[in-house]
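Figure 2 data, in text form.
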Amino acid sequence: MKTRSIILTALAICLAMAGTATAKTLKIGSLSPLTGSYAADGNDIANGTRAAIAAIEKEGGIPGYDKIELFAEDTACDPRQAVAAANKLVNEKVVGVVGAYCSSATIPASEALSEADIPMLTPASTSEKVTERGLPYMFRVCGRDDDQSIAAMKFIKDVLGGKTIFIVDDKTTYSQGLADNVEKLAQKEGVKVIEHDHVNQGDKDFSAVLTKIKEANPDVFYMSLQNSASGALMLIQAKRAGVKAAIIGQDAVYHPQLMEIAKDAAEGMYLTFGYIDDATPAYKKFQAAYEKYGKPGAYSAYSYDAAYSLLSAIKAAKSTDPAKIKAELLKMNMDGASKKIKFQPNGESGSNYVIRVVKDGKFVNYWDPQTGKKY
């Protein structure tokens, strides 16, 4: 009996070891600012990716893999750190990446990932340059700056009736590119650009530029900044300075912390952001998966859709070969949490920007550029 017991125990250990040896982990990565002034959006991106992993695993996971593991790397919205983080993911042998946030970080990071043939799906980088460089494995789930600027200018002219505009950006690839688009459209539409001024990333005192805006007294103040914390400070100081212009911002300042910081100074501000229908089954599924991370941020649903698309493509391809993943992504026609996910050959998934307004401390749908009607 003792000998038999020893044999059975040894057999059990061997079987366990064999099971461990054959266990496989699917590795994916995320790139976003996890520290610093952009950390709110960056952590939303990482958490949206985690929520997608949880949703896929709840559905049975991916055949051939016992586990899906996320390697979340911090870019700090810094180009050099983003490249270093991308190279770290290459060394970890991830099969795909969700990210990044700032276009100025996404563009160089994507070059490093492209050299290793690793698919990258950005949930937040809206610069046109992201998908216009011909990288074979670059995809975008959110919209584009040129489409966002068109929606903003249509609203400024058709709804606000603005005749004059003062533009401010913070010199980042994203913010300045968007502001430049708005300036060009304003000139084309006959809206006078009083001035296009700049501040610096990390600035906390905007009194100089706000004094100029107050004196110029434009109909519209277009505020193109990289994050909601900076946007909140500018709104507080604009109110204090007595700026009377209608203020319109963009998707980078669209985050719950805008109102948490700015409070009543944010009331009445307009923003461009992609339309998300939170009543759909796809959104409710995302919401349930994201619940453990708190209230969804601006890019939580987009990052969830990016990760869910990536994992679904791997599952459909039955392979981690990048060419096969790409082929499945291009076949995709999925109801996502953020929008319909259908990628074009260049990696774009289309834009669906609407105008929202801050009302009673909440973002409220206000106007649809496609229909020309208010909600």
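Caption note: The mean pLDDT is 93.
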